[in-house]
Structure formats: structure tokens, C-alpha cells
From TrEMBL, chain A:
<dbReference type="GO" id="GO:0007165">
    <property type="term" value="P:signal transduction"/>
</dbReference>
<dbReference type="InterPro" id="IPR002545">
    <property type="entry name" value="CheW-lke_dom"/>
</dbReference>
<dbReference type="Pfam" id="PF01584">
    <property type="entry name" value="CheW"/>
</dbReference>
<dbReference type="GO" id="GO:0005829">
    <property type="term" value="C:cytosol"/>
</dbReference>
<protein>
    <submittedName>
        <fullName>Chemotaxis protein CheW</fullName>
    </submittedName>
</protein>
<dbReference type="InterPro" id="IPR039315">
    <property type="entry name" value="CheW"/>
</dbReference>
<feature type="domain" description="CheW-like">
    <location>
        <begin position="20"/>
        <end position="160"/>
    </location>
</feature>
<dbReference type="InterPro" id="IPR036061">
    <property type="entry name" value="CheW-like_dom_sf"/>
</dbReference>
<dbReference type="GO" id="GO:0006935">
    <property type="term" value="P:chemotaxis"/>
</dbReference>
Amino acid sequence: MSKDNRALKNETDADSNDEVLQWVTFQLDDETYGINVMQVQEVLRYSEIAPVPGAPNYVLGIINLRGNVVTVIDTRLRFGLQTTEVTDNTRIVIIESEKQVIGILVDSVAEVVYLKTSEIDSAPNVGTDESARFIQGVSNRDDELLILVDLDKMLTDDEWDEISRLG
Amino acid sequence: MNSKHSNSEQAMTEYLDALLLEDEVVEFDNEPVKKLLEQAAPKIQQVTQQESVTLNRDEDLLPLVSVKADDTDTREALAETEAVVETDTQVEPEEEPQPDAMSEYMEDDFQALFFKVAGLTLAVPLKSLGGIHQVGKISPLMGKPKWFKGIMTEREDKLQVVDTARWVMPEKYTEELEESLDYQYLITLNDSPWGLLCEELVTSEPLQPEAIQWRKAGNNKRPWLAGVVRDRMCALLDVNALITLLDNGLGHIQQD
């Protein structure tokens, strides 16, 4: 293979590795978070969430989604943020993780953004707190930081098992 | 002087006491140090103010003493400061592969930037600075140590912001102190993404190696502390060591 061809092949390989992914962005406090669009089933306006007695504190309760019971997670609590009032912008994002379908309560849903893999950096590797594992990466978006969340890691295996028993 | 300021002053005095009275760091007896601190405190304050006034007239050093200026002046000054710092760090990179190696500073005079955090003055060699940025929006990340305030985006860069007061003196970091903090600038360290928040840029001035009480070679308790600048009674940072600690998520005191 000639030098030029090799260079062309490397360029093509680099391009093919730089996959474009779509992320649904949502707000919590003043921060913008992103979740992989492939995991989002739908976005609902806030509706009454029925509390479940004895449920862990990170579970807000359950909703009835067209006959299916979906557990809603207190995202703010999970992310270590203060609770806040429900507003007109509050949404329940229904997501399908590797484990099951759950809802996450967010302050608002913003948009769908396209990010190349090369535009995503890993988060600083400091801190041993459990919640550090939620962060899949970070990216600059219009001079704002977009924090990409790994939904599968939002709960531990035991916690996924626990909420599966609630539904 | 308001109560917030007195708390900061108190925190500074207590911190310097602890720093300077530590046998491994400084070879002073307790009593003389106490007297020295008592005598030096007002003088340091006075000297700093006098220097600020003098330096404000000095165009070359204006960028580093313009903290109290209005926004436009500050922005211009910061731009100039960044240019100065960048020029400093970029000049002759091949001849100086380790510009912040403390051993180098022990041999020759060097320029240092003095900045204030919670009443505490810290010094850092100018060559070890990556840049000085005005504090913008800082996005916190969950699960990180409390001293890691989050990420500040600056053009394409993602700067990792350290709450300097909390990192340097966590034992003095009260809610009151936290409320009183008014961080204005982020001083980035070398080529790393790490930046230290500071409230005030004091000045920059040349330092001679003999003006510094260098950390003893065997003292690994505070590897980030290169030494103490004697006449200003402030800590001189070892930037490389500091970056290593931050990269590893470690606090300011290491166990022996």
C-alpha cells in the first residue's frame, strides 16, 4: 500500500471511529445533562406520582403508563441536589436501560443534540463517591458544559433488582 | 472591617501559625515566631498596600495589581497578564523542560505571583502558571470531593476548578468562611486543566532563593508546599506536586 493510500485509510478509519451520537438534554438546577437518545422511550409532562410505602428514598413512586407500572426515580436526590418544586417545565423521562424501564424526574427537557465521540471527554477521575460513576463524559456545548449520564450506572445491580420488585 | 473579613483574617493567622510552627517545615522556635507574626502582621499589611499603590503606577506590573479596578480595567489587565504568563511559559520550552521544578527555583531568582484566598496569601512561580481567567459558570459534577467545585468551560477548554480555601485549609473551612468567599479568578496550573480559585491577585515580584524557607527534602507531609516566603509569611506552591495530588484526588496533608 502506498504512503498516500495508507494516509487515506487512516483518515477513513479515524472518521469511522468518530461516531455521531444523539443525546436528549435535560436540566437539573442550572446544569445540563445528556442521556443517549436510544435509551429514551418518551418524555411525559408531570403527572401525579403515587408513593410506594417502604420504597427506598431514591424512588419517588410509581406512575401508570398506559397500563404499565413505571417506577420514577428522584433524580435530584440521586445526583446529590436539593429537592425543588414541580413546575410547568417538570418532565418525567421514560428510559429503557439494560435492566428495565424507569422514569426519571427532571426540571425540564431541552433538546436533542448531536455529538461526535471525539467531542466527548472523560470526566476528571477524582472522587470515589458512588455517584461519580454516573458520569459517562462531558462535552462543551455552546460554551456550556454538557454532562453525559450513564443511566445503567445510576443504580447498582441490587437497586435495579429492588425497583423491579416495586413495579 | 466587617465580620466576614475578620473571619478570613483569623483563618489566615491560624493557618500561618500552623504552617510556620510545624517543625518539619520551618526551623523556628515557637516564641520568636509568635512575636514575629505579631510584629509582622500589620507591617505585611502596610507593605502590601504600599506596594500595591507603587505598583499601580508601574505599567509593567499593572496587570497583576489591578484587582480592585473596574471591570473594563480588570479585563484588560487580565488579558495582558495572560499574555505575560503565556509568553513566560512558552519561551524556550526546550531549554527548560521542567520550568516549575523546585530545584531550579532554589538556584536562581524567579518571578512569583501572589494571590489571596480567604485572607491567606499564596505564591506561585509565574512560569508555572497556565493562565489567569475570570471566574465564569462552574458546573459541579456529582460524586467528586468537596474541594472540586466543578468544571468551568473556557473556549474549548474544560478547566477543573479547585476551591482553594477548602483544599488548603479544610480544617478552617466553616460555613461562615464559605459564605464570605468571593472568588474572582481561576489560576490554572502549568499545562494541566487544574485551576485554583482566588479572591484577589496581589502582585508579582521577583523572589530570591534565599528569601524562601524551603521545605526540607524529607518532609512529604505537604508536598505541595515548596516553602515559605519569609518576608511575606506566605506559602510558595510546588505546582508539579500540587497537580499530582489533584490528579489523584488527594487532599492537602499526606499521611507519613
